[in-house]
Amino acid sequence: MKEITIIGATGVLGSSITKKLSQKGVRVKAVVRDINKAKKLLPETVEIVYGDVSDKSSLKEALVGSETIYLNLNTTTWDENAPFHPEREGIINVIDVSKELGVKHIMQIVGIDLSNPEFATKGMIYKTNLIRKPAIEHMKKSGINYTYLHCSVFLDSFPTFIQGEEFAIIGNHQYPVYFTNTIDLTENIYNTIGNANAYNQSFTIQGREGISFSEAAQRFLSVYAPDKKVSEYPMETIKHIGLPSEEDEQFMEHMLTYVEQLKEEQVSHSTWEILGEPKLSIEEFVETLLK
């Protein structure tokens, strides 16, 4: 039986992947900070243990017996001077503890922008990647087998764009995106577990077709909510949507401005040979959300 330990199992993407791996018969252990939340969110087949990436002692208890770890953490600020980031100090803690415990393999989800900076048509640097960089360098020097999964935009996030009667898109997103989803990614992760051909490698994770954000939204709604419409707003709209702080506004504007000028190309054929090919169209994926 395949086994995996997941850190970041209760987020939107992490919870979906955790459930799907468990459904495929993988023995899953979820390392979480909020046990009660995890019990409500995850299947009974998932072993839930307490662990906090900011606390090495808790990680030592949580990761005992783990051979393969999957990291699904995220960064929501690009303040490099912040004393702690889950994707920097947090992951470094995980690596240090994993090395001490003899963990065999760590895989991590990151953005496709990190593996293919040439996609940035205006030469922008995504500031979050500067925060991730020290942990990535630490991983590669650790001696632990690693696998990076550089993912395109997830269709799983689309329901969060629906506000009232519309699917709201901020910015002028005209370039093609090879949208992926957690069902196809779960297959990739499943095929990575115990696969020596995936060790010490980076893989791009994309769907088969490149389409604009607005076209993807329209196709998503045609199945998910046919009565709603796609609306596009200028970037200045961010200042008027009531985000909690100015820092949140700046972070969202930087992220969307970066994505706006990102022009993907299909670069994942080598991934398909080792980790499997994407199977679902946009419409087929939406059908799974409605079940």
Quick summary of this structure?
With 291 residues, the protein is α/β, with parallel strands linked by helices.
Describe the protein in words.
By secondary structure, this protein is α/β, with parallel strands linked by helices. Helix content is 40%, strand content 17%. Strands 3-2-1-4-5-6-9 form a seven-stranded parallel beta sheet, with helices on both faces. A three-stranded mixed beta sheet has the order 7-8-10, covered by helices on one side. α4 links the parallel β4 and β5 (105-111).
Uncertain segments are none
Helix content: 25-40%
Number of separate helices: 11
Strand order of the largest sheet: 3-2-1-4-5-6-9
What is the 3D form?
globular
Give the topology, please.
Elements (H helix, E strand, L loop, with lengths): L2 E5 L4 H12 L3 E6 L2 H7 L5 E4 L5 H7 L5 E4 L14 H16 L3 E7 H4 L11 H16 L2 E7 L10 E2 L2 E5 L11 H11 L8 E5 L7 H12 L4 E5 L12 H15 L8 H7 L6 H8 L2
Parallel strand pairs: 1-2, 1-4, 2-3, 4-5, 5-6, 6-9, 8-10
Antiparallel strand pairs: 7-8
Helix pairs in contact: 1-7, 4-6, 8-11
Q: What features would you highlight for this structure?
A:
single chain, NAD(P)-bd_dom, three-stranded mixed beta sheet, alpha/beta, seven-stranded parallel beta sheet, 40% helix, NAD(P)-bd_dom_sf, Rossmann fold
